[in-house]
Design goal:
By secondary structure, the chain is α/β, with parallel strands linked by helices. It has a single domain, classed as ATP synthase, F1 complex, gamma subunit (Pyruvate Kinase, Chain: A, domain 1, 3-Layer(aba) Sandwich), CATH 3.40.1380.10. The chain contains five helices and five strands; from the N terminus they run αβαβαβαββα. It has a five-stranded mixed beta sheet with strand order 3-2-1-4-5, with helices on both faces. Helix 4 crosses helix 5. The longest helix has 77 residues. The radius of gyration is 29 Å and the shape is elongated.
């Protein structure tokens, strides 16, 4: 049995850790509420972007636009959204697993793989891989990302596809369902999807300055909306998973404190019993 001094040190150490995990749980819960509201509000914008794209799909010119052109996939770009820190459960591990599966499939199909990461955890993983080009590594965009944060990433992705340096662009992120359910997901960004639509029910108005410019701009905005939504969904998922993970850590710390306190009390009682026995034995020896 460990000495009482060792047990007291362990209990103190666990209590200090519990204070940290409890504080992190409260911070994550506060951030989760704002991130969830932010993600849910922006979903309408993404849906409207798809609705507009459906209307534009009725035009035959769309298939010839640079962002809609489909090419044989010889090079694939992954945008990987992870966090900068740990203590978020399986948040980063799920994305890394999804990326690994994609890279294995690309290798088997002789497709070159490129990666752009958001968050240091993803960059650290990709740097250890062979035959995978880490094109860029961005820091997380903060708790309230803006269009200015997204635009450098958007411009890079669009330029790479238009210049035919990559033939397929996927974004890997964590889709937020609820505070208890989050799912790692892969979404096709480029080529922009050609959606099925009944052309007879869609009325196309005149475009200014011209059809090509309007379609190109709308497709770019659609890609931006998808990246934007993926960042917001990932942010809410990260806070939710960190809140759950730190709560579990706090609960485990409470259990450990109870267990070690019981062991400490047992050791203290055993020490007291031994001392009483020694005193009683000494008294009997003196009396005799």
């Amino acid at each position: 049995m460990a000495s009482m001094i060792t047990l007291k040190r362990r209990i103190t150490s666990i209590r200090n850790t519990r204070q940290i995990t409890k504080a992190m749980e409260m911070v994550s819960a506060s951030k989760l509420k704002r991130a969830q509201e932010y993600a849910e509000r922006s979903r309408d914008y993404r849906d409207l972007a798809y609705d507009l794209l459906k209307r534009l799909n009725a035009m035959s010119e769309v298939e010839r636009m640079p962002l809609f052109i489909k090419r044989p996939v010889k090079s694939r770009l992954y945008i990987v959204i992870t966090s900068n820190t740990g203590l978020a459960g399986a948040y980063n591990a799920n994305i890394v697993k999804l990326l690994t599966e994609g890279l294995k499939a690309d290798k088997a199909a002789h497709v070159k793989s490129c990666v752009i990461t958001v968050g240091s955890k993803g960059a650290q993983f990709v740097r250890r891989l062979e035959d995978v080009d880490l094109m860029a590594a961005y820091q997380p965009f903060g708790d309230q990302p803006t269009a200015n944060h997204i635009r450098p990433l958007l411009n890079t992705v669009v330029d790479e596809y238009i210049n035919a340096k990559v033939d397929d662009v996927q974004i890997l992120y964590t889709d937020f369902k609820s505070s208890l359910v989050q799912r790692a997901k892969s979404l096709l960004l480029l080529p922009a999807p050609l959606l099925d639509v009944d052309t007879a029910q869609v009325k196309i108005s005149n475009f200014e300055p011209d059809v090509e410019t309007v379609v190109q701009e709308v497709a770019t905005r659609l890609v931006e909306a998808q990246i934007w939504q993926a960042v917001l969904e990932s942010l809410a998922s990260e806070h939710a998973m960190r809140m759950v993970a730190t709560k579990n850590a706090t609960d485990n710390a409470n259990d450990l404190i109870d267990d070690y306190t019981l062991v400490l009390n047992t050791a203290r009682q055993a020490s007291i019993t031994q001392e009483l026995a020694e005193i009683t034995g000494g008294a009997e020896a003196l009396a005799s």
